[in-house]
Amino acid sequence: MAEAIVMTALSPTMDTGTIVSWVKKEGDQVSSGDVICEVETDKATMDYESLQEGTLLKVLAEEGASVRVGDPIAVLGEPGEDISVFLQSRGAPVHKPVAKEKAETSSAQPPENEEKKPAASSPPPADRATDRVKASPLARKLAEELGIDLHHLRGSGPGGRIIKRDLEESPKPKTAPAAQAPLSDDGVEKRETASGKRKVIAQRLSESMRQAPHYYEKVHAVMDGLLSTRERLNRPRERKLSLNSFLIKFAAETLKNHPALRSSWQDGEIVTYGRIDIGLAVALEDGLITPVIRNCTSKSIVDIDAELAVLVEKAKAGRLQPEEYTGAIFTISNLGAWGIEEFTAVINPPGSSILAVGAARRTPVAEEDGSMGVRTLAALTLSADHRVIDGAKAAAFLVALKNTIEYPLDIML
Amino acid sequence: MAEKYDLLIIGSGPAGYVAGIRAAQLGMRAVIVEKGKVGGVCLNIGCIPSKALIHQAELFLSLGESEKTGVKIDRSAFDYTTVFSSSRKAADDLSKGVRFLLKKNNITLVEAEGKVVGPHDVALSTGETLQAEHLLLATGSTPREIPGFSFDGKDILSSDDALMLEKLPKSLLILGGGAIGCEFAHIMNAFGVQVTVVEMMDHLLPAEDADTAAILERSFKKRKITVKTGTTAGGYRREKGSLVVQLEDRNGKKEETEAEKILVVVGRKALGDRLGLESVGITVEKGAVPVGDYYQTAVPSIYAVGDVIAGPQLAHLASKEAEIAVEHMAGRSPEPKADPMLVPRAVYTEPQVAGFGMTEKEAKEKGLPAAVSVFPYRGAGKSVAVGKTEGQVKIIYRSDTKEILGAGLAGAQATELLHELLLAKKAELLPEDLATMIHAHPTLSETLMEAARGVEGWMIHA
User: Fold this and answer.
1) What is the CATH number of the domain that holds A55?
2) Which of A45, A146, A181, A330 is the most exposed place for a label (fewest CB within 10 A)?
3) What is the pTM of this model?
4) What's the CA gap between B16 and B44, in Å, rounded?
5) How many angstroms separate the CA atoms of A122 and A116, rounded?
6) ipTM of the complex
7) Between A and B, how many residue pairs show a Cβ–Cβ distance under 8 A?
8) For residue B425, what is the nearest residue in chain A, using CA coordinates?
């Protein structure tokens, strides 16, 4: 019996997917769990695992083609089966590659395919008359409030119905806002539908700002010691250890002794995390993502650095999986390389705090004896969620972190 | 030699027999080991006989209202032994019914006592040992005593004794104002016994909100049932053929009260001891068998469900737990635990009391943005037409999303009406779904529609 394989939402915010390459060819046998093709989504390039079994009789979407979620990409059936009637009845269009449009002049675009449609013609999800999503009234209402498109969710309720739990568990990437969109250079106002990624960032960051009463504390850390140590350690190394790896490790070790900073407000309960997973904000062409290093306290700085290198590369290539960018209980955002002296960041849930690191600069300081000296200082600004973290606790953590940065050997005790 | 079964169940109550039948449906060979009456406590000495007595009590009460039709009924020929016999008949019929169901499903029934001697082995009191791939412990519970009031079956009664009374006392002191205590108060008072209920917490039915319980308390007071809340009993002495009990309230004020008999209904103790579980490394805590997801114990082949594990001791919950455990054994993926927010609570007094999920008090204590909508029974035409106006329907919901958090009902048919709200909660319907559904007029169900309309701000009949 011939059946169609359709494009499914491989990530919660996916609208369309582009076939990057077909792993299975026409005539190949497909078993449940086999990867049949690679699909590029708004987030990353992912493997499409078939839930269906059969022989791949016809490919309907060629490599390079962009397909909407729900539209067919191939036909499975018995070898030799006549599917002409099937194809006719389905009215299955054959998708050809779509030419990429560029609206902005910017360099190094991540390999994504986003159809830029004028806002007026893109139908809101509720108006897709042919495919009403099965969801409980409660889930529908919550989705509307949170700005989540139900078409992007998989339902775990009866008959595949989307229920409240499915909204709560869908991974939501979220980071501190940093990059600003470049102004279009032709003087004319431009209007376009926000991409799925941008919508998610907008919704999640707004929610974080709304729900968590943010307040900020700042210290200047004297970086000379750390920077010279790093330089010495990096001399024989082919791949240099990044400064962020040190900061992640120091933050993790400090968080061990400051449980409030690794806690989270969840609906009237305070959850304190034992395993310390730290995210690092990484700027992308059109957004932000926070790859997460799990269990930082049991990893060395070298381990963290190696892992970070892999994750950052994946992040820039748009290949991070949801489990690689969600669930950080603490986040570090470093705009030093962009020349920013200091800034404040938006907390990235489920964490209750985020550290904004500014550039390390040679700064005149007053010495003990009143003379003038020069140090390399970096501003560390901590944003904290007042529902869970009180000022004194945040202060204790931040000062302890500063101390560790300045006297790293102390953590050996 | 021992035959090997897929599932061996110890206990044939609502957990045990349901587990057996479900296992058979899923293609498993099951055997049930039962040392007492088939059907367990629920059928024989719990839910069923008590509901039969309640029905008889309500019949008797309604006979007293016959004068409204101009008919005078002489109730002096009332004979409790007949009432008692009908409750036993109901129990026996259902017990036979369960035997029939077990037979129909080819489940072997072994009438003996079983003890666990290995992860797959149960030794019977008959001398044999049975083996099974999985074991399910469903041995239930027994009435709990309080210090100073040991059951003697004569003067200090447990619920077992009360259900087997063939002659009614003139007066009865009931220690425990939960569901069971209130149901007995209702039965006994209907049959002319002078009843006093003593409850330690602030109000009767501590599991419900105070305003819900107050409706029952008012009704009891009208019927001349004495209710003492915030009160505990210290001890008793015999004096001239009756029992004098020492009571103390929360302010330390002491008083004494007299009764012919005392009924102690303060809960039930899990029967997990004496099952030999230490031999397989399972430590029983105060009679209760510790379990994790899917009701598995520390030994993967052994599961436990029903009153013998911690949690609300309710027959329908026991059945649900049994279904989950058996489906897990059969390789299916049921939910790991029954959702406690979806377990209905029912009290078969008059008026009835029913509820599920969070009470208003709990929702507030959890710090949720909770609100309530309350609709009084008297706002519904049917309740006035049939003279059952006491009661209310309360929906507890989140003020931000209108999600239903729980419900508390008091009034006629509350235990039936509850299910429309429970279904709404389970299927994640919103109050507006109930508010906009046409309910037949005149029915008591309209109270649910109106309470839902109250959430939306447009209650019509109140």
Assistant:
1) 2.40.50.100
2) A181
3) 0.61
4) 14
5) 10
6) 0.72
7) 29
8) A138
